[in-house]
Every structure is written in structure tokens, then in C-alpha cells.
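To the team - magnesium ion complex, inputs and output below.
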Amino acid sequence: MHAKIVRLAGDGVGPEVMAEATRVLDAVAALWGHEFEFEDLLIGGTALDAWGVPMRDEDVEVCARADALMLGAVGGPKWDGVEQMLRPERGLLKLRKSLRLYANLRPVTVLPALYDASPLKPKLLEGVDVMVVRELTGGLYFGRPSRQWKEYRGRAAVDTLIYREHEIRRIVRLAFEIARGRRKFVTSVDKANVLQSSRLWRSVVDSVAAEFPDVNYQHALVDSMAMHLVTKPAAFDVVVTENMFGDILTDEASVLAGSIGLLPSASLGPVRRGRSLPLGLYEPIHGSAPDIAGQGKANPAGTILSAAMMLRLSLGLDEEAAAVEKAVHDTIAQGCRTADLAPAGAPATTQEMGEAIAAGIARS
Ligand code: IPM
Ligand code: MG
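Output:
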């Protein structure tokens, strides 16, 4: 197949991990006879330095026409003093919102070879296989008003947590559909004992659940969920939640996998006219890690596994996606690991790990 993929490497370690994901995609293309055409665009602090904005409108247009989008990471201390609306993160938020990428899928699995990399007891990690479905274009991230002002007694600020019923319904439906293809168990996370938006969320979940009688579900409060995610992580299958809770819980969940550098994500929008698969933005859940940028220390696995999600979800290449995932798992099991996963001994560099994964790709 021929596919046009936009690469947004971004800031910090972004370009390094993107280079390794590209290496792996090149290996896939060679083996299966595909043609992946890459176009590079700037996002985040790098775009701000070059263009004066963290994401240009014309570049969003290019993204909207692509078959799939890959992102490295955005942000860094260099841009800490920048005004709120020009911050590097704004570029990513603009892309998510403009392309209506409302569904953020963050799978969390634990490789037995990495039980020792997690601070949790191996017994707790057995059988962990969670799919977090995070709402990505609503809630506190985008609600208005969102501003600061001065009052007589000092400064004040407000952010708005707003959800509309249709926004909740589409993400919750997707979570139940995903659960149907898995262990058929949805946990919906909210704070319904305090928040109005959560009470609405809960009632929409109940009504969607009635459409899926074959799927079991439960409600959980976000505070107790934060505890249960590390005390009984194997008890969860699909977890669906609003934007900010999902942001926080997925960083927490990465502790299960052994390193935040391992976790991939897909941000999906609606299916576009004339196509059968949704546009997606594929990115690792880790940040730009400015402290290790340019040193070959970053773990490329999260980005490479994101590329696998892209092959499956936006390009429909299931066999190729499975081959990439297997190559990542085998490489780690064989002991080729970056510093985040290899506290003792000589760690592999970003490039060495990428090369080992690319070399391990094989047709089944
Ligand atoms: C994430 C990140 C982003 C978010 C930031 C960079 C805006 O933390 O993708 O989890 O908060 O959504
Ligand atoms: Mg986050």
C-alpha cells in the first residue's frame, strides 16, 4: 500500500525516538512492499522558534489530509517563560482539537521480562492488560472561561470543566465497543460524589451500557481508582474517563509497565468521508525529557509501539502491526534495553534499540 504519514518530531527527545520509529517503518515497508511517504512538520517549541507559533494553521491542514500522523514530544524549559497561548503544549492541543481527535487510547501491558523494572511486586503485575480510553478534546483542557485576573485581595484564576452529553456518549460507546473485543469489562472513572460534570458522565455511561448488555461495567471514583490501579491492576480491562483524569491515571499506569518510555498511544478522530479508518495521531505518552535530549538515552519503544498502533488502526495493516509489537517484545526480552530499563550494566542507546527492533521484524 501507499500511505502518506506526517511526522511531527517536536522537541527534546522527540527527533531521536522518531528516527527509530521511522527505521522500523522502513523495515516494514521493505518486507511487505509498502510505500510510506513521510512529510515532516514542526510542532511545539521548535515550531515556535521557527514560525512564532507552536503549530501553524496551514500545517494543521496538511495533517488533516494525511493518512496518519506521528508525534515525538513537545515542550521544554527553554519555553517556560512563554505566554500561555504560545506554549509548546498548545500546538499539540490545537492539533487534537482542530482534527477532532477525541479518543485517546493508551494500552498498558506488562512484559514478564520487565517485572523487575517496576517498583510493584511481580505478583501484582501478572496478567495486567488495561486499555485506558481517555476523552481528549473536552473538559478542563478546553472549557471556557480559562483565565487569570487581578482582584483587590490578589490574583484569581479559573478553568472550566464542561462536558456535553454527545461528547461523553461517543467516547463511552467507543470504550464499550473496544471492551467487546477484549474481556468485556468497562470501568468508568469519575468524581460523581463532588462534580456535576461527573454526575452527567455517570448517567450517560448507564444509558450507553444498556446498549451493550454483553459487556459488564462498573463506576469508580478517581481517587480510589488511583489507589486500585497500583494495588490490583490486573482487575481492570477497559478504563474510560474524562480528559484530565485520564492524563493523570495514564502516567500512574506507566509505572506498571516498568517505564513511561514504553507506552504508546493513539488519538483517534471520526472516520473521514470516503475512508473506512479514522485519522489518528500516534505518540508515546512520555514527554520531551529535555534532561536526556540529544544523548541517545531515550527509550524508542513507546514511539515504535505507537507506530504499530498506527499500522493497525489508521492503515489497517494488522499483520505488520503484530510483527512490530513482537519485535519490540523480543528485543526487550533478549536484554537490549535503554537506561530507563537497565539500571545495572551497560544500557543500549536509542539507536541500538531501534536497530535491534528493526532487525527483528519478520513476516510470520
Ligand atoms: C499527554 C501530555 C499532554 C496532555 C500535554 C503535553 C499537553 O501530558 O499527552 O498526556 O496533558 O494531554
Ligand atoms: Mg500526560
